[in-house]
């Protein structure tokens, strides 16, 4: 999964990357970034850091950011290692919006949400866990502003009604409400956002707690007064104040609108038409405050498939999507020689290198990892097998995800099942719609090839 965010950063011109992962994943991530694959990202300087986690407690992104905040000294990008952006969604698009609005409008962050496609009935398995859902968001489409995210706490407080403050509607009267967008967990932020995060030590989730909170100072007076000096400290900003005053993005405050409205009603129409205000003459009685906005980039589903592989349902959906983009199952001559001539591998399947496929085995619409063994007469349909899996003779798999080092016994049958790494299915066993787990979650060390899903990647914007 690391390939996608690293390539995204490389294409946008980012050079400094702080890569944070759990300690248990350090070996796998280190091997990856030091392998030949690193030649694809020659300009990236990757600083790999780790954070401790346990089976009972995994630190949230807020906790991780506070821990490493001293290493981030400029405006930065926060993105997960499991986001797969389409070619039509460039990171440069987010960076340009952030740079423009933070300079000329006083914005403090830019977030990215993507539209989710409706899944066909029967393509997901509820037994694998809770189905992913999208939190309703309120946004202003004209200015590209994220205004409100409905959090689990909001639902707990009032499950029957959707609550919005009048100050939000007064400042943005033409807002939109939608539950069709999902948070990509990609945020471009000013460095001062970390200072505000350090002032909220009880926050753990950046998606469900901090970003929803960060949207509020832009229209809540009390929060602006309390945190405005942190989010936008007073500096020598005469040029920025002038830019804010004449910016087409910046919306005046309610007080400023009332003042202008009163002045306009008392003024003479002929006089107003004859006077042209100077764009460089400051208004002594009116100061322009930074907007403290959270910008929003929305990616529509029609523009390309985007998703996060942060749950089993999305991971399987991503694999199925990429299968539809491939034209051949294996182009490596050495690996092809390990596939028996009497085996059937459909062209919409992918077979990893050094994987052996025995006589009369059948593989359709599936992704098979590296160093796997598929036995004689085995049948695999619509599955994802990670590296080092063994499927014995006559076994049948349908719509399954097998973790690394999984072993499936002869003539066993699995349908819509997912296995933990190292799980062993006995000979002749049958299972449907189950999560098959080992008794010890650390039973096998798969660090050599283990994906680093769940790790967070914070990269400094070197051009700022």
What does this structure look like?
The protein has 464 residues and is of the alpha/beta class. The protein is 26% helix and 22% strand. The protein contains 14 helices and 29 strands. A 7-stranded mixed β-sheet has the order 2-1-29-3-9-5-10, sandwiched between helices. Strands 12-15-18-21-24-27 form a 6-stranded parallel β-sheet, with no helix packed on it. The two termini are 27 Å apart.
Secondary structure category: alpha/beta
General form: elongated
Distance between the termini: 27 Å
Poorly predicted regions are 258-285, 440-464
Q: Give the proportion of residues in helices.
A: 25-40%
| Main sheet: strand order | 2-1-29-3-9-5-10
Beta-strand percentage range: 15-25%
Q: How would you characterize the largest beta sheet?
A: 7 strands, mixed
Number of contiguous helices: 14
């Amino acid at each position: 999964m690391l390939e996608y965010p690293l390539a995204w950063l490389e294409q946008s011109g980012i050079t400094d990357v702080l890569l944070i992962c759990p300690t248990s994943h350090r070996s796998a991530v280190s091997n990856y970034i030091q392998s030949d694959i690193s030649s694809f990202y020659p300009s990236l300087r990757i600083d790999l850091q780790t954070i401790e986690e346990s089976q009972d407690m995994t630190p949230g992104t807020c906790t991780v950011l506070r821990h490493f905040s001293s290493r981030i000294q400029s405006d930065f990008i926060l993105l997960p290692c499991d986001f797969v952006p389409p070619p039509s969604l460039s990171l440069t698009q987010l960076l340009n919006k952030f740079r423009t609005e933070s300079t000329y409008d006083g914005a403090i962050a830019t977030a990215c949400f993507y539209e989710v496609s409706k899944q066909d009935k029967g393509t997901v398995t509820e037994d694998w866990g809770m189905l992913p859902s999208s939190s309703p968001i309120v946004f202003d489409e004209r200015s590209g502003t994220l205004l409100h995210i409905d959090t689990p706490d909001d639902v707990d407080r009032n499950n029957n009604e959707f609550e919005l403050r009048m100050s939000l509607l007064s400042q943005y009267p033409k807002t939109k409400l939608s539950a069709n967008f999902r948070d990509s967990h990609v945020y471009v932020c000013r460095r001062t956002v970390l200072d505000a995060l350090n002032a909220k030590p009880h926050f753990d989730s950046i998606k469900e707690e901090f970003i929803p909170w960060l949207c509020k100072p832009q229209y809540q007076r009390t929060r602006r007064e309390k945190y405005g000096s942190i989010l936008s400290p007073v500096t020598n900003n005469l040029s920025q104040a002038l830019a804010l005053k004449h910016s087409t993005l910046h919306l005046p405050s309610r007080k400023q609108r009332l003042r202008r409205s009163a002045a306009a009603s008392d003024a003479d129409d002929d006089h107003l038409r004859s006077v042209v205000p100077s764009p460089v003459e400051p208004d002594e009685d009116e100061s322009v405050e930074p907007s403290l906005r959270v910008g929003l980039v929305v990616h529509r589903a029609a523009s390309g498939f985007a998703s996060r592989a942060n749950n089993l349902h999305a991971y399987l959906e991503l694999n199925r999507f990429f299968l539809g983009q491939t034209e051949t199952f294996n182009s490596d001559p050495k690996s092809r020689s390990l596939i028996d001539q009497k085996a059937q591998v459909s062209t919409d399947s992918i077979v990893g290198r050094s994987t052996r496929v025995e006589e009369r085995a059948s593989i359709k619409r599936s992704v098979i990892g590296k160093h796997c063994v598929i036995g004689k007469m085995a049948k695999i349909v619509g599955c994802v097998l990670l590296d080092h899996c063994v499927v014995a003779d006559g076994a049948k798999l349908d719509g399954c995800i097998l973790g690394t080092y999984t072993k499936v016994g002869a003539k066993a049958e699995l349908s819509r099942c997912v296995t933990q790494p190292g799980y062993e299915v006995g000979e002749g066993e049958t299972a449907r719609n189950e999560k098959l787990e080992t008794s010890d979650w650390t039973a096998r060390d798969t660090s050599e090839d283990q994906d680093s899903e769940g790790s967070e990647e914070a990269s400094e914007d070197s051009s700022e």
